[in-house]
């Protein structure tokens, strides 16, 4: 191994493939590497296995599901498929990696794995607004997941911040429970797809505040309102809501890779398109960790497949 082994930790036999991360990219890579008889070890994460789709309701645009499918149902099916072919699935977090050299190391809190190739599929995380009281009131009225917390806001007035597809999906879902949903948008138009926009416009419970930005969350023990500013007039005012759902996009989970794998200015992994090769031999990246343009389950799964094939060919060349 290229790095010293932490004292007291057990080093396993050398593996051909380790996959870091689950979701469509990670599980697709697991299916393909397992079917290639590479005996992959896939670290799913201690919590949140299955990626962002575990927090999604109906997925309507993944080919093969004519009537749509619930996000968690689809991810559990992908997981079962990877396990069926022999992928070794471990619900644990990777805390450090050494990806330099021909033999790499992947460490959890209790184990170190020596491996010839690594496929990174750690995905992305919810982006925060950065408001003074946002973190403090997290779980007390501030949320980043409507499907997780929407039920708790039944018959309440709530706000959603964002103008993309995720914001429209959150607002439409929350309208099932809330008395009203106010969507706060920085511009005077939405970035969401036309079909998602129309669903929100057609819902009588959903209204829009255009050219507006939130400046703080109001409340002591729970959310009692949102301080906002009109970007055209500069006027500041209070929005009377008891819940705030943030849906302004995601950030890549690339913290483990800094200083080893080349990243772009936003933290996304750079690969040699159309392959999934990074700047390091034997290290491949796929899914939302690489893609900040398309960000679809089908494209993530496709790059997971590509990463598996790239890893297989790399090993065959060795």
Q: What brief labels describe this structure?
A:
single chain; 318 residues; alpha/beta; 8-stranded mixed β-sheet; 5-stranded parallel β-sheet; 20 strands; 22% helix; elongated; disordered N terminus
List the helices and strands and how they pair.
Elements: E1 10-11, E2 15-20, H1 23-35, E3 41-43, E4 58-59, E5 69-70, H2 71-84, E6 88-90, E7 96-98, E8 104-107, E9 111-120, E10 124-126, E11 142-143, H3 146-149, E12 157-161, H4 165-174, E13 180-184, H5 194-202, E14 206-209, E15 212-218, E16 225-230, E17 236-239, E18 243-246, E19 250-252, E20 283-285, H6 297-317
Parallel strand pairs: 1-9, 2-3, 2-9, 3-6, 9-20, 11-18, 12-13, 12-18, 13-14
Antiparallel strand pairs: 4-5, 7-8, 8-9, 10-19, 15-16, 16-17
Helix pairs in contact: 1-2, 1-6, 4-5
In percent, how much strand structure appears in the residues?
25-35%
Sheet with the most strands?
8 strands, mixed
Helix content: 10-25%
Task: Compute the number of helices.
Answer: 6
Average pLDDT rating: 92
Indicate the structural class: alpha/beta
Number of separate strands: 20
Report Rg.
21 Å
Query: How widely separated are the two ends?
Result: 17 Å
Topology as a string of helices (H) and strands (E): EEHEEEHEEEEEEHEHEHEEEEEEEH
Shape: elongated
Show unreliable segments. Answer: 1-9
Looking at how many chains there are and whether they match, the oligomeric state comes to single chain
């Amino acid at each position: 191994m290229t790095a010293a082994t932490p004292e007291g930790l057990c080093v396993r036999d050398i593996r051909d493939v380790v996959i870091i991360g689950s979701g469509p990219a990670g599980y697709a890579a697991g299916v393909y590497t397992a079917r290639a008889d590479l005996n992959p070890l896939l670290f799913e994460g201690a919590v949140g296995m299955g990626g962002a789709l575990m927090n999604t309701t109906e997925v309507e645009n993944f080919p093969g599901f004519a009537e749509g499918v619930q996000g968690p149902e689809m991810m559990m099916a992908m997981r079962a498929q990877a396990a069926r072919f022999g992928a070794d699935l471990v619900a644990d977090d990777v805390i450090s990696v050494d990806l330099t050299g021909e033999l790499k190391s992947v460490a959890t809190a209790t184990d170190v794995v020596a491996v010839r190739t690594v496929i990174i599929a750690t995905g992305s995380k919810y982006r925060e607004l950065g408001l003074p009281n946002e973190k403090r009131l997290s779980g007390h009225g501030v949320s980043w997941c409507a499907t997780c917390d929407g039920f708790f806001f039944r018959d309440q007035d709530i706000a959603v911040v964002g103008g993309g597809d995720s914001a429209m999906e959150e607002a439409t879902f929350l309208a099932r429970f809330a008395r009203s949903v106010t969507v706060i948008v920085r511009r005077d138009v939405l970035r969401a797809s036309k079909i998602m926009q129309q669903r929100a416009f057609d819902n009588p419970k959903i209204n829009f505040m255009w050219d507006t930005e939130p400046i703080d969350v109001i409340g002591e023990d729970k959310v009692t309102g949102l301080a906002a500013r009109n970007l055209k007039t500069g006027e500041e005012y209070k929005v009377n809501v008891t819940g705030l759902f943030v849906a302004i996009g995601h950030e890549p989970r690339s913290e483990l890779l800094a200083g080893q794998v080349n990243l772009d200015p936003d933290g996304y992994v750079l690969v040699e398109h159309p392959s999934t090769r990074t700047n390091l031999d034997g290290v491949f990246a796929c899914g939302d960790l690489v893609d900040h343009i398309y960000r679809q389950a089908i494209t993530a799964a496709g790059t997971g497949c590509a990463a598996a094939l790239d890893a297989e060919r790399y090993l065959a060349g060795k």
